[in-house]
Amino acid sequence: MIESGNWPGERGWPIIGLVAGRPTGRFGEWEETVDGLTRTYSTAVQKAGGLAVLIPIDERLVEHPEKALRLLDGIIVAGGGDVDPVSYGSTRHPKTYDTDELRDRVELAISQCGVAYNMPLLGICRGMQIIALATGGVLHQHLPDVVGHDRHRKLPAGFAEHDVWIAPGSLTERAVGSRRITGCKSHHHQGPECLGDGVVPVGWDDEGAIEAIEIPECRFALGVLWHPEEDESLGDRGLIKSLVDQARADATHPLVGN
Known about the structure:
The chain has 258 residues and is α/β, with parallel strands linked by helices. It has a single domain, classed as 3-Layer(aba) Sandwich (Rossmann fold), CATH 3.40.50.880. Helix content is 24%, strand content 24%. The chain contains eight helices and 13 strands. The protein has helices at 39-47, 60-63, 66-69, 101-116, 126-134, 144-147, 171-176, 239-249, and strands at 15-19, 24-27, 30-33, 51-55, 74-77, 121-124, 138-140, 160-166, 180-186, 191-194, 200-204, 210-214, 221-224. A hairpin with a 5-residue loop joins strand 11 and strand 12 (210-214). The radius of gyration is 17 Å and the shape is globular. The N and C termini lie close together (8 Å).
């Protein structure tokens, strides 16, 4: 139980929860499923002044996401495989792959709880899609069918780079300090088809595809399809830095003492 007055953010190191994926890893002769993310996420949080902690996938969090959130000052829902279309009532596209239905359910619950309690929340790539779905949206399962190309994803691996245009006055513009972000690093083939109530698009690529979303009623709730954790060029600005700063500013939280 965290008592009021001892909330982690008051100690100066905002605790940022990173919802872990379940990839397969090799350790010498051993091949195992692990709880993990690429280290760029935790490194970016640390450089921004936060303390990064992993949240392993736990089925109990589907019903009780607040058990994790009461330990945190902010949340990052990270990249990974495709979201299973069963979570938003669609038929599976032939190009949809690498799904994890339990991870979807946990991240959707955590995102919905984070929005409900106004906790600083950032979705990255898959995480942006999760936030869109958590608020009632629907995804394009294979954007090349819509835009006619796959330039936002290098195959078989690697990041594509492209520009994103940001809405003036948006939280995203304030975070990055610009209306145009050049060289965004992307690796995705899915994206929002429609957005849920209270969610607005605030970033687009050169062809008008949605690249960033926000929930204006929340202090800090946004998602981007690119990977800001891979780009340290913004220095003392940027999306992850802004998330950590907001988490530090929120000295108390509605879940304290619950």
